[in-house]
């Protein structure tokens, strides 16, 4: 398993730590693979009562590794794409999942929270969904889950503009449970995970299953993936990835929407 995902099982809580801080925990194919394996195995392992996800460094995650997006767009990424297995594992998981979000949660960093059951935000955290800014479309069934959670107009604004949502607003809108001081983030998330781990696991997972339509979520993920793959291959996306690599703003004015 890649060292960029650290796994620890203590007291029934399996913690998955995104550990690539020099790249702001941007998620690579190997990292998705490790997360997918862990979530899949947790469904079978009776020692695991709760999953907890957190990020090292100054932010939760900068989202998908953009270099890997560019490689896929250029047809240079061979082998299995574990992101799909990761997203389906999230949709199908019946293990209660807690998230501790420090700093920015970009792209899939925010959309994965819609699959978590208890979300704690640090006071400086920001949720950002810049899919359109990258000429892509939302994923992780967020095109269904986000409007359902916060209403169409707010979800449209978050997706279309990709501007940061602050922690207090995220709680007010129902994306997260609470905001705590940064130094309290991990202890608070851990405290909640341990509390959940004392509840009857069969009952918790049956409840979680009833609360989520996993089949609908996976079907939405398939629809999103089809659009996502088209967008990845677009001239707009090539310009967005190139601009990121060159540390400049993208210029979409010359492109005609194809
Ligand atoms: N993919 C690949 N590398 C990334 C990355 C990503 N999503 N996000 C950050 N990095 C890398 C940077 O390229 C930089 O690498 P370098 O040190 O080799 O130049 C390093 O991580 C630090 O990032 P930097 O941009 O200097 O940090 P920052 O604190 O100024 O800004 C972000 C952080 C997250 C605001 C900014 O990096 C960003 O916008 N990243 C892209 C986010 C994104 O669009 N993700 C995809 C969502 S679908």
UniProtKB/TrEMBL annotation:
Q: Which GO terms describe its molecular function?
A: delta(3)-delta(2)-enoyl-CoA isomerase activity
Query: What's one Pfam family the UniProt record gives for this protein?
Result: ECH_1
User: What UniProt keywords apply to this chain's record, in alphabetical order?
Assistant: Isomerase, Peroxisome
InterPro entries the UniProt entry points to: ClpP/crotonase-like_dom_sf, ECH/Chromodomain_protein, Enoyl-CoA_hydra/iso
Q: Which SUPFAM superfamilies match?
A: ClpP/crotonase (SSF52096)
**Localisation:** Peroxisome
Record flagged with keyword tRNA-binding: no
Subcellular location, principal: other
| Name of the featured protein | Enoyl-CoA hydratase
Q: State the organism's lineage.
A: Bacteria, Pseudomonadati, Pseudomonadota, Betaproteobacteria, Burkholderiales
């Amino acid at each position: 398993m890649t060292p960029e995902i650290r796994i620890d099982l203590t007291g029934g809580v399996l913690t998955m730590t995104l550990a690539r801080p020099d790249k702001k925990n941007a998620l690579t194919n190997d990292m998705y693979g490790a997360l997918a394996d862990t979530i899949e195995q947790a469904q079978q392992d009776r020692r695991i009562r709760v999953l907890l996800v957190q990020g090292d460094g100054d932010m939760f995650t900068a989202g998908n590794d953009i270099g890997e997006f560019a490689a896929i767009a250029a047809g240079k990424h061979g082998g299995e794409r574990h992101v799909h297995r990761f997203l389906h594992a999230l949709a199908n998981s019946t293990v209660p999942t807690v998230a501790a979000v420090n700093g920015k949660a970009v792209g899939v960093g925010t959309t994965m929270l819609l699959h978590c059951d208890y979300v704690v935000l640090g006071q400086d955290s920001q949720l950002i969904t810049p899919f359109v800014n990258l000429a892509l479309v939302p994923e992780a069934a967020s095109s269904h889950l986000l409007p359902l959670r916060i209403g169409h107009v707010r979800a449209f604004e978050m997706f279309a503009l990709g501007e940061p949502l602050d922690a207090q607003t995220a709680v007010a809108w129902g994306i997260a449970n609470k905001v705590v001081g940064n130094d309290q983030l991990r202890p608070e998330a851990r405290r909640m995970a341990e509390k959940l781990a004392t509840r009857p696991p069969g009952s918790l997972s049956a409840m979680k299953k009833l609360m989520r339509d996993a089949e609908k979520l996976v079907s939405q993920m398939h629809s999103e993936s089809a659009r996502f793959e088209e967008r990845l291959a677009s001239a707009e996306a090539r310009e967005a990835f190139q601009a990121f690599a060159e540390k400049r703003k993208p210029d979409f004015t010359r492109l005609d929407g194809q």
